[in-house]
Amino acid sequence: MKKEQLKKNDDYITNRVLLVFGVTAVMLWGLAFLWKQYDYSYSYYSAISANNILLGVSVVGLVASLAWYFSSVRKGTFKKESVFNGAIAALFFAVLLFSLMLTKYDYTIARRLNYVILPAIAVLFLIYSTYQREFFVLCVTHSMLSLAIWIIAKGSGGAANASVALLATVAAFAVCAGAILLFSLSFKNKGKVKLGGFTFAVSSGKADKNLVYGVYAISAMLVALAYLLGAPWAYYILYAFVGFLVFSAVYFTVKLI
Prior knowledge:
Order of helices and strands: HHHHHHEEHH
Structural class: mainly alpha
Radius of gyration: 20 Å
Shape: globular
């Protein structure tokens, strides 16, 4: 019976990951086609209209998906093991909304960011589904910190972008503080945190407290150094963050074996 349940769990995880990666690929293809239309004068205004229509669809889809999710949770019918549910639908529409809003702001920036962000979301979902929860949280927070350091490095070249670099630094400090707070709350409840009527896992319950606090304290110090030193040192610190994530991936993969 236990083997059958494990096989069932493996099947739904595999199917869900394939669904997320498949939709991500379709979304990237669709957005790339939309961005291409902005490059031609004869299709420029049509692309703007299509973007506005898709924005409306994504807003309606996101609201409907969240309503589906909260309604099913309240009724007790929410199935976490389902391949497709309100939470997954909300994820798709939220990402689509973000991408289209970026396109509306500046499609060249949207193109650069989404080629990184959309695949990163798919990879994070794979990590969420298969790895220990503390590794997922680590990947989310340090992806944010890496983005912040990249912004700091870009913004350190001139006074015009100094305020953006400062904002990224403050946001990075907030991420570190928020992560420490979440982990400290989870350590009191076997790795889980309760917010309102919702409970979610932040760690497996076996994470070392001092190691977790040390990681985020050092990360905050490195962010501060990146801001104070600027480029090219900020880029070196960014490479260190990426290297740390790669090392963590190897470590947690070995733990799964």
